[in-house]
Amino acid sequence: MRTSLGDVADVIEAAHVLYADEPATSAVLDGYGRRLREPLRVAVAGIVKAGKSTLLNALIGERIAPTDAGECTRTITWYRHAVTAHITMHRHDGTTERLPVRRTDGRLDLDLGSARAEDVAWIDVGWPSESLRSMILIDTPGIASVTRENSARSVEFLVPENSPSAADAIIYLLRHVHSSDVRFLEAFRDTAAGASQTVNAVAVLSRADEIGSGRIDSLVSAAGIADRYRRDGELRALALGVLPIAGLLAEGARTLRESEFIALRELARLDRAEREKLLVSVDRFVRPTAATSLSITARENLLQRFGLFGVRLAAALIRGGATTSSALAERLVQQSGMVALQEFVVDHFRQRAVALKARGVLQGVEQLVRERPRPGADAVLGGIERIMVRSHELRELALLAQLRTAPVALSVDDVADAERILGGAGTAPVVRLGLADTAGRPERDARVQSLLTRWRALSESPLSDRYTAHLCRMVVRSVEGVAADLAGAGAHAAAPGGSVSRDGRRDAGGASDVVLASGPAQGSR
Questions:
Q1: Are the CB atoms for 168 and 356 separated by under 8 Å?
Q2: Which of 99, 187, 309, 407 has CB 3.0 to 4.6 Å from 209, enough for a Cys bridge?
Q3: Phi, then psi, of 304 in degrees rounded to 5
Q4: Residue 497: burial class (beta carbons within 10 Å; 0-12, 13-18, 19+)
Q5: What distance in Å separates the CA atoms of residue 422 and residue 354, rounded to the nearest whole number?
Q6: pLDDT per residue over 433-453, tens digit each?
Q7: CA 148 to CA 144: how far, in whole Å?
Q8: Whole-prediction pTM
Q9: In terms of Cα–Cα distance, which of 214, 209, 298 is closest to 250?
């Protein structure tokens, strides 16, 4: 059975009736209700100077998030879709204040006025960006900051002690695996989705271009490091994946100006020896020179926007055939690693949005009811338990985590198969089956039957302990679900008004997300 937000809403309503005489508790439950109706909440976190705001700008497709060290970067800032731009400051005392919408060099100027960062609970930015229709992005202060208060704001928001995290999923940026990164991801795993849950975090090797000292093949080196972390490192038990990305390049590519393209084209047209001499280092690039008509200021701007790696790569791509600004922007985005991250967010977070939101809300309601026991509470807890037991999606989330943290009496290949079938590589049917997008119906049906035979045999084997047998039965249930999805997809394709993509994903005809102006009201009580 799939998770139903309607069933979760019924649990919230039952709790509302139970605590109708407690306004503060009712307000918390209202927040959980809003959370169900909103798009997925994805937080961007990481240590100081990891490039969080830069990556957030790349995800949005506009340079709006401030990246300097001002007061606004010490606050938690929500970016959500809105028809017209607006900014609202929410203070800890419950009061709110509309802030003026001003931009400096493209970025928002979030002027807190007389307020201090420690007075602000969060800033809510509504912005008319299509990228924000399907998810809310949350920018957080740096973890492991020299200023302890800054780190505390992010930790208290993302890994609160007495309530579920306000984020449904997290993109965690790191420059290398530091003990602070591991501690934070462990805390987020245990708080955001229950003990030993890894299914709502992805680690990103930000500033990947710096790993290879700005060489054009830097991202290749970074990809190798990311793969090693993903397979063998501590991050395997803490995040679904590890991806390399050149955040500055991604931001620059998605916001490339025509004037910048013209400047990069001039560099690409220089004599090879002159160009390589100019791009040998940052210092050499900004020295006075007769090799190019670009002013020092123009070259400094290119470095600020793309970095030396981005300038080198852009010149190479222009020489390779990117003859327009749009063509260059598209190729730079591809090279930056941004497309892989966006696909990961879709396959692992947005495809599981209902289950991730339901899990966070149910945990919050359960904790609230247990902390405030009264007659009738057992009925609410029973409703929560029924949803958790009946929802295979929620059980898949738990099993995925257990496979990475608990020993299981299966071969390495079988564990890898189980992870894939449970959705560890993505939730599309062909991905779960381990087939190519182009696989036809006979090949898909044959794979389903093969997997069912294999995993049923494992579940019934006398050599399988209780936990292993349970895991195998859940894998069988997932395969059966894939078979049902494929059968439904075939019927949907034959019906008017619906289509199915090559990977088996269903197009429901463009249903839009509901976007409400609410903040982290489900948090501390």
A1: yes
A2: 309
A3: -65, -35
A4: exposed
A5: 16
A6: 999 989 999 999 999 999 999
A7: 7
A8: 0.81
A9: 209
